[in-house]
Amino acid sequence: MREELAPHVHDITRALGGKVSEQEIEKELSSYLNVYRVSLDTAKRSIVKKHGGNPAGLSVGISKTIRELLPGEQSVNLLARIVSANEKDVTVEAGTKHILYGILGDPTATVPFTAWEPLDVTLAKGDVIRIQNAYTKEYRGQVQVNFGVRTTVSKEKPEALPEYKPGAGLGAPYVGKPTAFKVVDLREGASNVAVTARILSIEAREVEVDGVKKAVFSGVLADDTGKSQLSAWKDFGLKEDEVVRIEGGYVKSWRGIPQLSFDDRATVTRLKPDALPPAEKVGESPRMWIEDLAERGGGVDVTVRGILIDLREGSGLVYRCPECRRVLRKGACRIHGEVKGEADLRVKAVLDDGSGALTAVFDRELTEALLDKTIDACIAEAKEAMSTDVVRDELADILVAQPIEARGNVTSDDYGLMMIVDQAKLLKIDVQAEAREMLEGLEGSS
Amino acid sequence: MRELAWRLFAGEYNDATLELNGGGERAPSYVVSPLGAKVNRIFVVGVITDVENVGTDMQPMWRARVADPTGTFHLYAGQFQPEAAAALSKLKPPVFGAVVGKSRTYKPDSGNVYTSIRPERVKVVNEAVRDFWILETCRSLKRRIDAMAEAQKMEPLSKEGLLQIGVKEAIADGIVQAVNHYGKADLARYTAMLAEGLRYLLPEYREFRPPETAAAEEAAQKPPAAEAEEEPDDAEEKVLEIIAGLDKDGKGAPWDGILEAAKSKDVTKDRLEEAINGLLDKGLIYEPVLGRMKKI
């Protein structure tokens, strides 16, 4: 056993109440880390869940640098310097809470933090602290560190950590050969991956990371199994339609969708244009089962066939805040109060394919097409009936129980999967032809 | 996470006698079928044959029956299912209806277990939607039969083993539970159910066809058809005509009237009962109240 893994194996065994042997845990952990190459945190939690335990029972945090942090870590240890710290009162469900918030830094990066519970030590700018059992969340695409009830914070000597210099460090180079993945198999947390794909689109953007402007090249790539967003943090000279092999990438997720990122540590090799099917072919939207999307966390430009089994609240004619586009409730915006709303049409429906369910959101254009009616006609109808319910009822009448094929991006969060529908059509299936084929298969095999 | 809506035939759903309670107040409960479908939510499209208020006027409890090619689902909707109850109360059976609901079981002291559905949504649909549901349900049933066949070959059976051979998580878990509770599932029975569902969709297997097409097809397919087999069909056709003819007020044809009319058309009482049972099984007639028959 690798020395540093021993405490984690003990931790998992203990969280499972000793019902699985350490040898077995060790074998599994090694398979998760070396074969599937997921993060240690993900691996530990998966193993505990797999054996029916509760991952909250894990108590040995994983020491990381700030750069290595991913959203959704449950138990992480950091050695960091306080870059800034402030106090404020926030309103939470149980009343008012006094919190400490600010920025943490180490030689690799900086990250915002919030302490939700009173700490044993007072913290000031420049202090070096050791944090155990913190957790992370994602807010607006950025990782945040949180100190909760289980978190302990202690002060260290200033020389325990070098000063943070912006733009200084990148992660350590990968050791060993990268692991090849098909696009559909990419999972959040995997690192040192190799992907062979065709670049479908690419553009340069400038973003600000920790106050420093950086160029990022983002776009979409695809192989014969699916599509993925890509972010290259170095100019590899990527061009649309070329076939490349990217080695040494890592997988982050954006709203649940795994996406391929790579930086200086990666190498990009150009392959012959015919190494993969042409762009029209790999660019096709793959048909997927919802259970597979749920397991991946989402997907880029996928097609799902299922039945709209229910309409959700807020479908039909809605009014939006002119400031922030939020849907008004009783004529008022949650943020901007009473405003004159702008009419919009949309559908939020439950699409279920028998393997899983997702919320499918149809925009105004698609909704108008489904209704075969303009938004103005809907407004007129609602005025006549003195209620917007007529529009919703009409939509329910057309859509509920209908087989449908929908194409779009699928994202995920704590509430499940959501598809922003790009294209949709009511399915017309030749039921008899399919039934006949299935019956022949059945009779042929018996 | 929202629970998915399983597609199951009444024949499979009503075979279920295992209910799993998640423990804890808000944990979902599941009805597990003999093929391992672990059902919390179910989606059904069939013929709603009757709706009845079995509660009081003040506190209505609507009971409805939904027939599919293999059997009948039982629905109960009360005050806590206001939308479904309202929809059921307005229905004029028979109609094609789509139902989304939660799985329920009822265990009287006799030790039997009866499955039912607590509907969340009920909607009147057309025949095309029903036919698509049958096809989808056949596909879903086939996946479970195939997975269970693999499971029966596996020694010892484990969820991990099933996942390894590509069985999906949602089914793999249910299969292990089902095998522990029901023992070895009768796959022949469910394969027959699957074939029955598929044939229901195909005009060449329909009992009532225009005589000329039927004759032409039979001449082409099987010249020496057994004549004895044709006769009950003939009786069914006659009885169906009688029932339609006697149903003057929309409340169904009275039994006495059917019996009399049958005699005059040379259908014996035994043959009549046989034909009625056949028609009930096929979902072509139903019994709105005891002693009355109505064409769907």
Question: Any overview of this molecule?
Answer:
The complex is a heterodimer of chains A (446) and B (296). By secondary structure, chain A is α+β, with helices and mostly antiparallel strands. Helix content of chain A is 20%, strand content 41%. Chain A has helices at residues 6-15, 22-35, 40-50, 279-282, 290-296, 364-371, 375-385, 389-399, 431-445, and strands at residues 62-63, 76-92, 95-106, 109-115, 128-139, 142-147, 152-156, 179-180, 191-209, 212-223, 226-232, 243-254, 257-262, 267-271, 299-311, 316-320, 332-333, 337-338, 342-352, 357-362, 403-413, 416-426. In chain A, the strands form four sheets. Chain A has a five-stranded mixed β-barrel with strand order 2-3-4-6-5. In chain A, strands 9-10-11-13-12 form a five-stranded mixed β-barrel. Chain A has a five-stranded mixed β-barrel with strand order 15-19-20-22-21. In chain A, strand 10 and strand 11 form a beta hairpin. In chain A, helix 2 (22-35) packs across helix 3 (40-50). The model of chain A is unreliable at 165-170 (pLDDT under 50). In chain B, strands 1, 5, 6, 7, 8 and 9 form a six-stranded mixed sheet that branches. In chain B, strands 2-3-4 form a three-stranded antiparallel sheet, covered by helices on one side. In chain B, strands 10-12-11 form a three-stranded antiparallel sheet. In chain B, a hairpin with a 7-residue loop joins strand 8 and strand 9 (114-124). Chain B has ten helices and twelve strands. The longest helix of chain B is centred in the middle third of the chain and has 27 residues, at 127-153. Chain B is α+β, with helices and mostly antiparallel strands. Residues 221-232 of chain B have low confidence and may be disordered. Chain B is globular. In chain B, helix 3 (127-153) crosses helix 5 and helix 8 packs across helix 9 (255-264). The chains are: A alpha+beta (446), B alpha+beta (296). Chain A binds chain B through residues 290-291, 294-295, 307, 309-310, 350, 352, 354-357, 396, 400-403, 415-416, 427, 429, 431-432, 434-436, 438-439, 442-443, 446, and chain B through 1-7, 43, 45, 98, 100, 120-121, 123, 125, 128-129, 131-132, 134-136, 138-140, 142, 168-170, 191, 194-195, 198-199, 201-203.
